[in-house]
Write a structure and sequence with these properties.
Shape: elongated
Distance between the termini: 72 Å
Helix content: 40-55%
Largest sheet: 7 strands, mixed
CATH architecture of one domain: 3-Layer(aba) Sandwich
Structural class: alpha+beta
CATH superfamily of one domain: Calcium-transporting ATPase, cytoplasmic domain N
CATH topology of one domain: Calcium-transporting ATPase, cytoplasmic domain N
Strand content: 15-25%
Number of helices: 27
Mean pLDDT: 82
Number of strands: 26
Radius of gyration: 34 Å
């Protein structure tokens, strides 16, 4: 059994995709077949060859794109106007030609008679042009209708329009027959044009990654040194490595990129020398540049700041972050949300049902009530004409397109702003969430210790004002901690460096770690010791701060006690600090109506309550094992309904799986987060979670509005048709107009704002 994945060209509506899907499914040996109109990707599994699939696709009137043609088409579509899009394909070009041919009929047989002006052209000429317009624009429609009937044995949208147009010709409404087909063909082309732009929205990410990069490579076959010391070719032993400009597709893992100031980073990798600030907004959506130094990860497509960087390549071009994002979003677009599946099932039975209803409208009134079948006079519509109008009005284009275009736009808008939805179903589910559970470490907090207080024994301030004694204590501790790799040591050193105190004392000598107690060393001849509170209780008297240290420990802090030459000097409290974005993100979630914001952690009660109070959760649950977190998620669901769980995507996997929506943090764990969660936040903070929630709700509001508009207009025109007040061309114009409206309404989500109205609204003055 094999799987073939192809990109289909020539589709202008969701009904086209379903027709192809059903036609492929009828091939012998096909076990499963799915075609996503949103991505135009066809997936076929079974004992069937690629050539058989392509042949069937072409039998149905469509084609398969090659890789080169696909890239060219996408590039052209992003730049093309609607007219160029029409002229680029034969079927749509025929629709444009039909539009020219129908103009005399529209002007002289439809518009001028309304003003009482007689046609200056012979009726035979105008009718002939109208029939020509019908034949030209309608040929692809007739062909698709016939192929669907023969291959799939079904009546679809094209069949409805074909029956209506032929019926209009039979009763002598030549201009209306031509108008129906031209408007339908142009409307389908416009729908295809807008949907192609929605598909290409996510591919615009590819433009942020450069096609070439500067890499360090040896000089090959160096002409300057050939023949020197037996050198006959290959890597030159005299030149060493030199900068070379090459295509990103030629780069290999482990090679070194040279990224100059202001240049876009070409590949994912790790900084091996240099320091700079990097703008990661194209990848993670972060608005502020991020500091990068040796050992930090950088993403392809991010923009380097003022410093030069040397980057060791970590992934090939096909596997970098941007490529993975695009693949994940395309897979997400292929997953239908429950609302979309309902519309698809409804449309499947709706079309043939409307054919039956139209037949009854044409037959029952004349047969049972003596009503006219044909038009008895120019001012009265016969019931056959009304039945033909009904077929046109029944076309489900607007209803079918209302959901997928909205979901595609929402998923693309989210991806461009650092949020990855794994499917339309998760967009819909997130919109209904009223409770969110959060892991603590690495989610609400940074997952890295930070200094929260420095307190010298000689300090006379209230702890908030600047104090030279506290600064001296921090500088002295840094001299020792520079020799340690412990996370708490790095927290002390980082604060000293940020405060400009890192070089006040020389690095300590004779540094020794005392297991379970602390660390000692010599600084300017003084024997300095840094240890735990328990160690100092037995070693160095510290009465001034004994109670403070105990309070800090109860609050979830780690007090580092400091002494020199047997004398107590003070303490530094270190803790896993809350992320700067967490408090604001949770405040926004509360404003957006989330009833419960619950922190689930295995940490102690004191630490959990401190962080919970700082960030603003509504409830704290501490001392939880993984299975306890799962039960907590289930309890929240019973109380509030759909619940989301936010974690790091790995150690919180059971709770993420138990939640209705699992949301993983990104940052350094982006690759794992993308693969494991329903939703991934590419930035390593919660700032985009409120945006994702608002976007999902906006998407569902848009879908409901589109469905309501589609059904409402159809019901209104059903009444107009049955009363004999409409015309064929007005019916198709209304249907295509609604299709265009719901498509444009869905595309509005591509520009969904990052900030909420509360953030952008100016503050009221007293």
């Amino acid at each position: 059994m094999t799987e073939n994945i192809l990109e289909i060209t020539g589709m202008d509506c969701a009904e086209c995709a379903r027709g192809i899907e059903r036609g492929i499914a009828r091939l012998d040996g096909v076990q499963s077949c799915s075609l996503s109109y949103e991505t135009a990707k066809l997936r076929v599994r079974g004992n069937v060859t690629r050539e058989q699939v392509i042949t069937r696709v072409r039998e149905l009137g469509y084609d398969v794109a090659t890789e080169d043609r696909q890239r060219t088409t996408n590039n052209q579509t992003r730049k093309a106007s609607f007219l160029r899009f029409m002229l680029a394909r034969r079927d749509t070009a025929l629709a444009a030609l039909g539009g020219l041919l129908i103009l005399p009929g529209l002007l002289f047989h439809e518009l001028l008679p309304l003003a009482g002006v007689a046609s200056p052209l012979p009726d035979a000429l105008v009718n002939g042009l109208s029939i020509a317009a019908l034949a030209v624009a309608g040929w692809p429609v007739f062909r698709s209708a016939w192929r669907a009937l023969v291959v799939n044995r079904e009546i679809g949208i094209n069949a409805l329009m074909s029956i209506a147009a032929v019926g209009a010709v039979i009763i002598g409404a030549y201009t209306e027959a031509g108008l129906v087909m031209v408007l339908f063909a142009v409307g389908e082309a416009l729908e295809g044009y807008t949907m192609q732009h929605a598909r290409n929205a996510i591919h615009s990410l590819m433009a942020v990654a450069p096609n070439e990069a500067t890499v360090l490579r040896p000089c090959i076959d160096c002409r300057l040194h050939l023949g020197q010391d037996g050198y006959t070719g290959g890597p030159c032993p005299f030149c060493g490595l030199e900068e070379q400009r090459v295509s990103v597709h030629e780069l290999r893992i482990g090679e070194t990129l040279i990224v100059k100031p202001g240049e876009r980073i070409a590949m994912d990798g790790r900084v091996i020398s240099g320091a700079s600030t990097v703008n990661q907004a194209p990848i993670t959506g972060e608005s502020a540049p991020v500091e990068k130094t040796v050992g930090d990860t950088v993403f392809a497509g991010s923009i380097n700041g003022a410093g030069a960087l040397s980057v060791e390549i970590g992934r090939l071009a096909a596997d970098n972050t941007i490529s993975r994002v695009i693949r994940m979003v395309e897979a997400a677009q292929e997953q239908r949300a429950p609302a979309q599946r309902f519309v698809d099932r409804f449309a499947k039975v709706y079309t043939p049902a409307m054919v039956v209803i139209a037949a009854l409208v044409a037959i029952v009134p004349p047969a049972l009530f003596g009503a006219p079948l044909l038009n008895p006079d120019p001012h009265t519509q016969g019931w056959l004409y009304r039945a033909l109008e009904l077929l046109v009005v029944a076309c489900p284009c607007a209803l079918v397109i209302s959901t997928p275009v909205s979901l595609v736009s929402a998923i693309a808008a989210a991806a461009r702003n650092g949020v990855l939805f794994k499917g339309g179903a998760h967009v819909e589910t997130l919109s209904r969430v009223r409770a969110i559970a959060f892991d603590k470490t690495g989610t609400l907090t940074a997952g890295q210790p930070a200094v929260v207080r420095v307190r010298s024994a000689r300090c006379v301030t209230d702890g908030n004002a600047p104090c030279e004694h506290c600064d001296d204590l921090l500088a002295l501790a840094t001299a020792i901690e520079r020799r340690s790799e412990h996370p708490l040591a790095r927290a002390v050193v980082n604060l000293a460096d940020q405060s400009g105190l890192g070089d006040k004392y020389p690095a300590a000598q004779s540094v020794t770690a005392v297991a379970g107690r602390g660390i000692t060393g010599s600084v300017n001849g003084r024997e300095v010791v840094i240890g735990s509170h328990a160690f100092f209780e037995n070693a160095i008297p510290h009465a001034p701060h004994c109670e403070e240290a105990q309070d800090a420990a109860r609050a979830g802090h780690t007090p580092l006690m400091i002494g020199a030459d047997g004398q107590y000097l003070g303490y530094i409290a270190v803790a896993d600090a809350a992320r700067s974005s967490s408090q604001q993100a949770l405040a926004e979630l509360k404003r957006d109506g989330i009833a419960a914001l619950v922190m689930l952690t295995g940490d102690t009660v004191g630490t959990a309550q401190r962080i919970g109070k700082e960030v603003g959760v509504t409830e704290v649950r501490a001392n939880l094992l993984p299975e306890d977190k799962v039960e907590a998620v289930r309890a929240l669901r019973r109380q509030f309904g759909p619940v989301a769980m936010v974690g790091d995507g790995i150690n919180d996997a059971p709770a993420l799986a138990a939640a209705d929506v699992g949301i993983a943090m990104g940052g350094s764990g982006t690759a794992q987060a993308i693969e494991t969660a329903d939703v991934a936040l590419m930035a390593d903070d919660l700032s985009k979670l409120p945006f994702a929630l608002r976007l999902s709700r906006a998407a569902m509001r848009t879908i409901r509005a589109n469905i309501g508009l589609s059904i409402g207009v159809k019901l209104a025109f059903f009444v107009v048709v049955l009363l004999g007040l409409g015309t064929l061309w007005m019916a198709v114009l209304a249907d295509m107009g609604v299709s265009l409206l719901v498509t444009l309404n869905g595309l509005r989500l591509l520009a969904f704002p990052i900030q909420s109205p509360q953030q952008t609204r100016p503050a009221m003055q007293a």
